[in-house]
Amino acid sequence: MGKFEDKLAAMGVTLPEAAAPAANYVPYVQVGDMLYVSGQLPKLGDEMMIGKLGDDMDVAAGAEAAKACAINLLAQVKAACGGDLDRLKRVVKLGGFVNSTPDFTQQPQVINGASDFIGEALGEAGKHARAAVSSPALPFGVAVEIEGVFQIG
């Protein structure tokens, strides 16, 4: 294992196999040294984290869902890098979508679940630009979906 996966292991995280696309798209596209990863859902093992923020899910649970999305993003990056996550140079940007009610305004705190995890796991390489937006619904009723842009070597 490399430095990033060693850090993940120390955090108690093992990356899953990269998920196959759920519709007509590819999981990632590489252009030069930039890697664009399709939106990842909050699924760990057999559990899909379903809910609507501001209704049946609180911010802490939403942040855990965002962390699950981040783990799945890193799994896609690892797959794109031929199994060598240390080819990751930088997380450039995350785009977070939060399944939330019209009056819910804590999308940034929910997506912090992903940003905090990425920062802890990747250090300086994990510092990124970000968007956190509300969505009236997401695929399969999941709480969060996150896409990412990464620089790889």
TrEMBL record:
InterPro entries: Endoribo_LPSP/chorism_mut-like, RutC-like_sf. Residues 5-140 form the Endoribonuclease L-PSP/chorismate mutase-like domain. Pfam families: YjgF_endoribonc. Gene3D superfamilies: RutC-like. PANTHER family: ENDORIBONUCLEASE L-PSP_CHORISMATE MUTASE-LIKE DOMAIN-CONTAINING PROTEIN (PTHR43760:SF1), ENDORIBONUCLEASE-RELATED (PTHR43760). This is Endoribonuclease. It comes from Roseovarius atlanticus. The lineage of its organism: Bacteria, Pseudomonadati, Pseudomonadota, Alphaproteobacteria, Rhodobacterales.
